[in-house]
Amino acid sequence: MMADGTMNATTVDQRNHGHFLDAPKLEPGITRFWLIRHALVEQNARTMMYGTMDVPLCPDSLVAQQPMYEALARRLPREARWFITPLSRTRRTAQTIQNAGYGARGLTVEPGLVEQDLGEWQGLSHDEFPDRLEEAPHCFWPISASETPPGGESMETVCSRVGRTLDHLAQTHVKEDMIVVSHGGAIRAAIAHALKIDADTTLHFSIQNLSLTILERLNGSWRVVTVNELPGI
């Protein structure tokens, strides 16, 4: 601070360091989540509402999308903690990224970042599913954000669950990079938490398979760096 109350260039630079994204390289020492949606599931699973069912990945897609795995392996930070959900499709996706050039790392299972549980409606075909709904579906999701399937959870509940989990991880791993292989619904819920928007609004985000979403937590506040970034494109 200068005698006249103004700030010199050095003071301004120190005050703003780490708070602006003026360069393509992300600075280290920030609590940062690298959220990846799992790869495409196999064809039979795609005909139904699988939710938290443990369905396998599409074997043909694993081969055809190898360049995307290699691009993710290059894009992700080298010193990072890896998290997956209890479902095998996230573990297989994480292992394929690591095998594509990242290198083997330990995988921690985090149940709080799993997909929306559709309860008794899981396994229904896309044609059968609408007949069970009591509310009109969301225009970009098969079910409204507020409807709770029997024995399952609403998207509003998912947003609360994922938000609590992100806060806990951010507090536990301050200034660390965390790579999370998760699910479309859970990543939308993470965006809702970061932006403080409701569940209905966050369902307007597109989250494609193998896409990357980056969130940062800075001094208790959240920032969205990128959403639905497709590797190698």
TrEMBL record:
Domain of life: Bacteria
Protein known as: Histidine phosphatase family protein
Organism of provenance: Acetobacter estunensis
Gene Ontology MF: a single term: phosphatase activity
GO cellular component: cytoplasm
UniProt xrefs under SUPFAM superfamilies: Phosphoglycerate mutase-like (SSF53254)
PANTHER family attached to this UniProt entry: BROAD-SPECIFICITY PHOSPHATASE YOR283W-RELATED, HISTIDINE PHOSPHATASE FAMILY PROTEIN-RELATED
Any Pfam family hit: His_Phos_1
